[in-house]
Design goal:
heterodimer, A: alpha+beta, Porin, eight-stranded antiparallel β-barrel, two-stranded antiparallel sheet, about 15% helix, about 60% strand, elongated, B: alpha+beta, 13-stranded antiparallel β-sheet, 4 helices, about 25% helix
Chain lengths: ~220, ~250
């Protein structure tokens, strides 16, 4: 069973190299059937830039929970001070991402991703409703990214990715991991993408990107 | 094409951000409530100690029915030891320990101008609860000073006009008190004699005092609070109504 699963994973990853041909049946004007075989290139050599936004994930929530509130109030004076103010709703900004990758072989893109998110909240005076203090917990993950393309077409690509790096912020420095379980991009040069994932990028991500040929591809 | 990109960006922002957690409720009187509860939680047990004085007074004056009424209402399972100059009331606590309330009369009746002291004895610890002068139906003075020997102290001097009623003790209370925690805060309260607090102390069981915050029906109190750390002050005037509710002004 284990061998079968491993074989399935390898097949998916390498299908981009194996399925290198696209067959299309066309009909000529004189009624003859012609089968056209288009061969997909082995190398792409394109630069990819992406910007996107994602939802909250368990890992981003865990990152903020790792900074434990000391609790309280513990004294009468603290109780009075605590009662003089109230907290507004805490607001999650979303996970904003910036990604660059180089599409070398048809099935592989290598690059890096930066994610940023924040949770904001205000403390206000109960009587005057003036803002007393602003609270902002923010985090930024910096990770190298490997994207595996298992369906490559001119306008559509299906892929998965894996990233691992660190999270920095005003809370803690921690290692992090991110994975796109399945993603789809649609478009030629300017494209959109949608992904389902796990990790610091959020469970759901969408965005836009731009790809262009590198100098190597133009030669 | 631009339209689709803009639509996509709007969708991005609208779908990703969210309210993570509800905040707390804004209540302009929340801090006032904290102050009032602090004063009441200190004042009420102090006032309720008057039951021992009432009992001792009834015993000394020979008013057996009053003594029986008070004992049955407030400490029915207590054992009483009577001496010429003191009356000791021993109650069992829930943790298998006992608490003694000792009223030292000095052999002088309150009606003869006596000044009685009330002490709490628990184990080898004796705490002077307060000093009492006056009789039922007349203006009585109850002064109490508490300190934990370190940095916390309370000092009250209140006058009480009390009477036994069918469901307990009714008290009219006025006077002033101070509370302090060094390097933290000071707090003082005043209750005007023109608008005394009306407090009903009702207890049908024999357990130790419980905090009846709601048993204040009428009267007004002024509380002044100073935060010694931030050097800020706060003052609150509170009015109790006949239904046991209170408002701030």
């Amino acid at each position: 069973m284990r061998r079968l699963k491993l074989l399935l994973v390898l097949t998916l990853l390498l299908s981009g190299t194996v399925i290198a041909q696209e067959r299309q049946v066309e009909h000529s004007e004189d009624g003859q059937t012609v089968t056209v075989i288009r061969t997909l290139p082995k190398r792409i050599d394109q630069h990819n830039f992406r910007v996107g936004v994602g939802t909250m994930s368990f890992s981003t929530l865990l990152y903020h929970l790792s900074y434990a509130d000391t609790g309280g109030p513990f004294t009468f004076r603290e109780s009075v001070k605590d009662a003089e103010t109230y907290l507004t709703n805490s607001f999650f900004t979303g996970v904003y991402s910036l990604n660059y990758s180089y599409h070398s072989r048809r099935w592989l893109q290598c690059g890096g991703t930066v994610n940023f998110w924040a949770i904001t909240q205000s403390e206000r005076d109960c009587v005057t409703n003036n803002k007393v203090e602003n609270y902002c917990d923010w985090g930024m993950s910096i990770m190298p990214t490997f994207r595996f393309i298992y369906l490559y077409r001119e306008k559509v690509q299906l892929y998965s990715s894996i990233s691992a790096g660190i999270v920095v912020g005003n809370v803690n420095l921690m290692p992090c991991i991110d994975a796109t379980l399945i993603g789809c991009s649609f478009g030629r040069k300017l494209y959109g993408f949608a992904e389902l994932g796990l990790g610091t990028g959020g469970w759901g991500r969408i965005g836009i990107g731009y790809r262009f040929d590198s100098k190597k591809a133009k030669k | 094409m631009k339209k689709y990109i803009i639509l996509a960006l709007v969708a991005l922002f609208s779908l990703s951000s969210c309210v993570l957690d509800d905040g707390t409720t804004r209540d302009p009187n929340k801090a006032n409530e904290v102050l009032v509860r602090k004063v009441i939680s200190s004042l009420s047990p102090t006032l309720r100690n008057v039951k021992y004085i009432l009992y001792a007074d009834a015993v000394v004056e020979g008013r057996e029915s009053d003594a029986k009424f008070i004992k049955s209402h407030y400490f029915p399972n207590a054992t009483i030891e009577t001496a010429d100059d003191k009356i000791t009331i021993t109650e069992s606590l829930s943790n298998n320990q006992s608490m003694q309330s000792v009223v030292t009369t000095g052999g002088v009746k309150l009606t003869e101008g006596g000044s009685w002291t009330l002490e709490e004895v628990s184990g080898d610890k004796t705490i002077l609860v307060g000093t009492y002068t006056g009789v039922q139906g007349a203006e009585c003075t109850f002064t109490t000073t508490y300190t934990n020997g370190k940095e916390e102290s309370e000092d009250y001097s209140v006058k009480i006009l009390y009477s036994l009623v069918s469901n307990g003790i009714k008290m009219k209370v006025w006077g002033a008190g101070d509370m302090e925690l060094k390097r933290s805060y000071t707090m003082s309260f005043t209750i005007d004699d023109n608008n005394p607090l009306i407090h009903y102390y009702s207890n049908t069981g024999g357990s130790r005092d419980t905090f009846y915050y709601i048993n204040y029906f009428g009267g007004a109190m002024n509380i002044a609070y100073t935060d010694l750390v931030d050097n800020t002050s706060r003052e609150v005037n509170i009015l109790f109504d006949d239904d046991g509710d209170h408002i701030y002004n």
